[in-house]
Amino acid sequence: MIPDLIYDVGLHNGTDTAYYLHKGFRVVAIDANPVLVAAAQEQFRKEIANGRLTVLNIGIAEQEGTLSFWVNEANDLQSSFSEERAKRYGPCHEIPVRCVPFSSVLAEHGVPYFMKVDIEGYDCFCVSSLNPNDLPKHISVEADGDCDVVGELKKLGYTKFKLVNQQTFPDSMPITRDELGRRFLRKLSVKIPLIKRALSVPAIASRLARTDFDGFREQSAYRFGPGSSGPFGEDTFGTWRSAGEVSTRLREIQRKLAASEIPSGSYWCDVHATY
User: Fold this and answer.
1) Which of 13, 27, 96, 224 has a CA between 20 and 30 Å from the CA of residue 44?
2) What is the pLDDT of residues 172-212, one digit of tens each?
3) Range of the domain at 72
4) Does some domain include residue 177?
5) C-alpha distances in angstroms, 212 versus 90, 158, 194, 236, 257?
6) DSSP string spanning 104-145?
7) What is the pTM of this model?
8) Number of domains comprising the chain
9) For residue 104, pLDDT beyond 70
10) Per-residue model confidence as pLDDT tens digits over 123-146
11) Are 144 and 240 in the same domain?
12) 65 in the Ramachandran plot: left (φ > 0), alpha (ψ -120 to 50) or beta?
């Protein structure tokens, strides 16, 4: 493991790479979309020139070769090598992208201290390439129904886990429409003493219990941009939990999403792990 190196697998708009560079790390950033890679090369010219950042325009797959990559024209965050997955969120167009096994990236650039993986359905190709005897100290992977992320990380030797809401960065459940009013009242009570006193009545307070959804992101000194994965490692919210606890929490979230009117793609969470 190289202690000053981070992998940003799923570069997208560069907001995570910018944060990792801000923290003083060297970064290897990977994205299949050549438009996003070109934008990052322009944005981070100085960091690339001084050797702090390497940007790779490749896809990750089981075998080396060229695959069709489906660029979502409404939201490039939802682009994927899976045509069906990409088209869930709007019209797409197809481009050819050179792909390599993730093991070849590790062989060339080394094992990082932290690795963020968010590549829309192909995340487990990265996880399965890791060596149990030489793991990143910290890792985050999008919690995707196509892959048992927690189970795969546990098999590798990771022992401590967190499930992080990617909109707000604590481990809170998604907010459904019927809960928005309660959250709005909690927000108002901070600014209006009369409402604060009214909400302090035990019978009301018990129904409006504050969650950590409300302030963790705003409390950070660093301003995380749209689509950011947020803090990593020991800077993430909350306590580390067992694989079983996080798997149970993930199933609860999946049931809530299935039973709610939350639009597909508007809520997502990452599994963070360490050992």
Assistant:
1) 96
2) 555 454 554 555 555 566 667 766 666 566 655 555 554 44
3) 2-171+219-274
4) no
5) 32, 26, 23, 13, 19
6) HHHHHH--EEEEEE--TT-HHHHHTT-BTTB--SEEEEE--T
7) 0.80
8) 2
9) yes
10) 989 999 999 999 999 999 998 767
11) yes
12) left
